[in-house]
């Protein structure tokens, strides 16, 4: 375990795809080892919605997310510290990654104001004003005790352009330094930097050059996955991985759609998180290798097959689409069944991706995967075709 | 014939103190049994509320009989007809005995829609009217191991007239006879048992009449209807049940509908009830509460009193859950703690000390409090696990107390020294 080394993080590159930029790694963190590429489910408020920690463990999840802004508000860092950190509070024995609260600046923008000091939030619960500074964010994350903490970054929506993007990029560098200085637990908690710069290649490069000079155990690629054009998105991802060190993990934030995961693995990313699979589950949308299945739709009322006959999750082993369709009308458990399935789908996808990289057949995997997902060649998303071509994978 | 293959083997019968025994030869294979007094496993379409089978399996010693209700099922008739293999298979259940009731005891339904020939249930899409023909067609698609016959139980409102009560008894008997006729002619229902339903509102003579008449029919057991929590105070309920059970054969089980509160359960067991529906844990869960009352009679009596006082002190005043309709039985009882209360914010103890359920073994009150305050779905899952475990353990303790002549000790433990409840809810429950 990492405890024996000096650092709370160790990355071993197990295999590298000779064709693309993909890697399969063993990431050793304080609570357990993580196999990458990895998808990390999001449990914002110290719980994965409707799923027990036992179920999550049973699904093979090795690392999941908590959110600093939300948990910092309720129940607050002091209480969580009293409960032996977020691990103790939610009784999760494996790894946790906490986001800094930076993204809420964008998602809750009505409530926030950014200055060099930090982000001022007006609490939606009691109207009180809170200042989330780099120091405060790290302090909360130190109390939460997560295995990986994210720096507080100055987040700007990817649809914004102009001087604000540059300002935010430079400020993020300064805030990274403040976060590094503020981290009280560098022997137990890993602080990741977040590369910003919006959709501007020059700004990204500046950020990459600067941040990679700092001694952090890992890097996240931020400021993307916010509604920007996919053509710009992938170019920024690949530019970032081109300039990130090989021996440190690359975490692409906010990415979780199957196509995006596979393509971005090919572009050199190791870690991903997204609320999409678990959120869409609660609306009855089940993820499958050929797309998604809206269980609540009438067409499934009399469909007595499981969601995916080849899926090994409890939901698919026990229940039919018809039963789940009916259950949605009477009980919340229907949502939990789909949530379990969607997490199983995501984790199974990543396991297959990793296996194919280790076995040296990742490009084949990509082709098979795309064929399964899209009924015909002309439905392949243009950006994905381009992105894959950029790493030497041509799709028939 | 709607046979009485199920056998009630009583090991103890004490007048005014209840019956103890086992209901045997249940299910189509006749292999299952259920201890009495006991309760059925309340579900929504075969699913214990909030729980997938994985989370349900963390519980042990669950009843072998699962309850489903036509209020959840009626709207899926076409689907079940096409499925052909019944609700047990449809729900992915395996070794369970299936009991089908008309209404969901957890959700009182609107009144005023019952006619001479029909009763109504409310599905997710609205009201569904059932004639006996439709009711029986549904039973054929559900394929339960046993079901209650169609009944008119709309007598629980305040000021139900005598005439209306009489009508409910007459209609229910008529429905029973019609159901039995169809049942006997249906090959699909071979081996399935039928319970007759005793009505009569709060009128003693009607209760006796209904019991006598229903007992004449070839049914496997009896449902006692129109006595649910909120319809009358326990004293009257006890009186009526005592009178009813005098008219019913000793060797057939009595299932009381709509009553689940521990104090009422104890009183009704003494009056001669064998089976209950386990919807109470669900109601407690929905109001964000955890069952916490003690039923452990092995404790030192002095220690027991101290513990009781401590819990009483912390359970707080009756709190109305502002989110719920005040017309339903959503008021907190003295048998539970309200985890939304600030006092639990930093309480790192399990819900109930010594409880072996998954929730108590893995989580603390502070965490549950947080989940409730932040409206997280996991709260419902964890509370349902605990409340179900606690409730079924209570029934276990009840059977043990009956076996060892310790019912009075149990009552004191559960109800407190005064033997009564802390909060009188009957005044506020009768809100219609």
From TrEMBL, chain A:
Binding annotation for Zn(2+)? 311, 313, 316, 341
Which Gene3D superfamilies does the entry link to? Answer: Queuine tRNA-ribosyltransferase-like
Q: Name one GO biological process term.
A: tRNA modification
- SUPFAM superfamilies noted in UniProt: tRNA-guanine transglycosylase (SSF51713)
| Location of the protein in the cell | Cytoplasm; Mitochondrion outer membrane
An example of a Gene Ontology cellular component annotation for this protein is: mitochondrial outer membrane
User: Which residues hold substrate?
Assistant: 99-103, 153, 196, 223
One Pfam family in the UniProt entry: TGT
GO molecular function (one): tRNA-guanosine(34) queuine transglycosylase activity
User: Which keywords accompany this UniProt record?
Assistant: Cytoplasm, Glycosyltransferase, Membrane, Metal-binding, Mitochondrion, Mitochondrion outer membrane, Transferase, tRNA processing, Zinc
Q: Where is the tRNA-guanine(15) transglycosylase-like domain?
A: 20-372
**The keyword tRNA processing belongs to this UniProt entry's keyword annotation:** yes
Coarse class of the primary localization is cytoplasm
Give the positions the UniProt entry annotates as the active site.
Answer: 99, 273
Q: What reaction is this protein's catalytic activity?
A: guanosine(34) in tRNA + queuine = queuosine(34) in tRNA + guanine
Entry cofactors? Zn(2+)
* Record's function text: Catalytic subunit of the queuine tRNA-ribosyltransferase (TGT) that catalyzes the base-exchange of a guanine (G) residue with queuine (Q) at position 34 (anticodon wobble position) in tRNAs with GU(N) anticodons (tRNA-Asp, -Asn, -His and -Tyr), resulting in the hypermodified nucleoside queuosine (7-(((4,5-cis-dihydroxy-2-cyclopenten-1-yl)amino)methyl)-7-deazaguanosine). Catalysis occurs through a double-displacement mechanism. The nucleophile active site attacks the C1' of nucleotide 34 to detach the guanine base from the RNA, forming a covalent enzyme-RNA intermediate.
According to its UniProt record, which protein family does this protein belong to?
Belongs to the queuine tRNA-ribosyltransferase family.
Question: What name has this protein been given in UniProt?
Answer: Queuine tRNA-ribosyltransferase catalytic subunit 1
């Amino acid at each position: 375990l990492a405890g024996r080394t000096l650092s709370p993080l160790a990355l071993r590159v197990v295999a590298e795809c000779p064709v693309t930029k993909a890697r399969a790694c063993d990431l050793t963190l304080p609570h357990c080892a993580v196999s990458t590429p990895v998808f990390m489910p999001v449990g914002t408020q110290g719980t994965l919605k409707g799923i027990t920690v036992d179920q999550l463990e049973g699904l093979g999840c090795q690392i999941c997310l908590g959110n600093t802004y939300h948990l910092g508000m309720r129940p607050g860092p002091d209480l969580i510290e009293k409960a032996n950190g977020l691990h103790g509070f939610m009784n999760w024995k494996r790894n946790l990654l906490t986001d800094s609260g930076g993204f809420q600046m964008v998602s809750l923008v009505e409530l926030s104001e950014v200055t060099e000091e930090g982000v001022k939030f007006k609490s939606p619960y009691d109207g009180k004003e809170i200042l989330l500074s780099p120091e405060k964010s790290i302090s909360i994350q130190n109390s939460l005790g997560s295995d990986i903490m994210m720096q507080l970054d100055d987040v700007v929506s990817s649809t914004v352009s102009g001087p604000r993007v540059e300002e935010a990029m430079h400020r993020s560098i300064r805030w990274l330094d403040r976060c590094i200085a503020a981290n009280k637990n560098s022997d137990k908690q890993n602080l990741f930097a977040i590369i910003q710069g919006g959709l501007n290649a020059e700004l990204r490069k500046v950020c990459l050059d600067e941040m990679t000079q700092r001694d952090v155990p890992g890097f996240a690629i931020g400021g993307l996955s916010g509604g920007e054009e996919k053509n710009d998105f992938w170019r920024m991802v690949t530019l970032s991985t081109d300039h990130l060190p090989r021996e440190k993990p690359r975490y692409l934030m906010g990415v979780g759609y199957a196509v995006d995961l596979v393509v971005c693995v090919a572009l050199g990313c190791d870690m991903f998180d997204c609320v999409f699979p678990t959120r869409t589950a609660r609306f009855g949308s089940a993820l499958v290798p050929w797309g998604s299945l809206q269980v609540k739709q009438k067409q499934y009322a009399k469909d007595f097959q499981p969601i995916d006959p080849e899926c090994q999750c409890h939901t698919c082993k026990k229940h039919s689409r018809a039963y789940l369709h009916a259950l949605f009308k009477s009980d919340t458990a229907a949502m939990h069944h789909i949530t379990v399935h969607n997490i199983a789908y995501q984790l199974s996808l990543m396991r297959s991706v990793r296996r194919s990289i280790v076995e040296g057949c990742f490009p084949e995997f990509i082709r098979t995967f795309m064929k399964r997902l899209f009924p015909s060649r002309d439905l392949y998303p243009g950006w994905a075709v381009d992105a894959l071509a950029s790493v030497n994978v041509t799709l028939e | 014939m709607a046979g009485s293959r199920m056998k009630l083997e009583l090991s103890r019968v004490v007048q005014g103190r209840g019956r103890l025994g086992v209901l045997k030869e249940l299910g189509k294979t006749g292999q299952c049994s259920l201890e009495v007094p006991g309760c059925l496993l309340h579900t929504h379409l075969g699913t214990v509320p909030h729980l997938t089978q994985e989370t349900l399996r963390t519980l042990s010693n669950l009843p072998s009989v699962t309850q489903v209700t036509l209020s959840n099922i009626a709207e899926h008739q076409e689907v079940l007809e096409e499925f052909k293999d019944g609700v047990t298979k449809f729900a992915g259940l395996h070794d369970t005995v299936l009991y089908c009731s008309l209404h969901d005891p957890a959700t009182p339904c609107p009144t005023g829609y019952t006619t001479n020939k029909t009763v109504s249930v409310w599905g997710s899409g609205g009201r569904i009217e059932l004639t006996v023909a439709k009711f029986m067609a549904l039973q054929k698609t559900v394929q339960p191991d046993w079901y209650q016959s169609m009944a008119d139980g709309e007598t629980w409102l305040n000021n139900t007239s005598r005439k209306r009560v009489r009508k409910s008894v007459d209609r229910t008997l008529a429905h029973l006879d019609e159901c039995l006729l169809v049942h006997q002619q249906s090959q699909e229902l071979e081996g399935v048992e039928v319970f007759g339903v005793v009505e009569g509102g709060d009128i003693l003579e009607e209760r006796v009449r209904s019991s006598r008449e229903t007992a004449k029919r070839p049914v496997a057991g009896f449902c006692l209807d129109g006595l649910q929590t909120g319809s009358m105070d326990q004293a009257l309920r006890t009186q009526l049940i005592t009178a009813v059970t005098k008219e019913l054969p000793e060797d057939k089980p009595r299932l009381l509908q709509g009553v689940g509160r521990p104090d009422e359960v104890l009183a009704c067991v003494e009056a001669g009830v064998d089976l209950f529906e386990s919807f109470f844990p669900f109601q407690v869960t929905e109001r964000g509460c955890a069952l916490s009352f003690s039923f452990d009679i092995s404790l030192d009596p002095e220690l027991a009193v101290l513990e009781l006082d401590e819990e009483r002190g912390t359970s707080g005043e009756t709190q109305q859950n502002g989110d719920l309709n005040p017309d339903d039985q959503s008021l907190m009882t003295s048998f539970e703690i309200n985890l939304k209360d600030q006092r639990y914010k930093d309480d790192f103890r399990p819900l109930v000390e010594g409880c072996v359920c998954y929730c108590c073994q893995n989580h603390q009150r502070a965490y549950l409090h947080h989940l409730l305050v932040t409206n997280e779905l996991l709260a419902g899952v964890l509370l349902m696990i605990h409340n179900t475990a606690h409730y079924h353990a209570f029934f276990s303790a009840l059977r043990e107390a009956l076996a060892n002549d310790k019912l009075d000790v149990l009552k004191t433990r559960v109800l407190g020294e005064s033997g009564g409840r802390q909060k009188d809810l009957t005044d506020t429950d009768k809100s219609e």
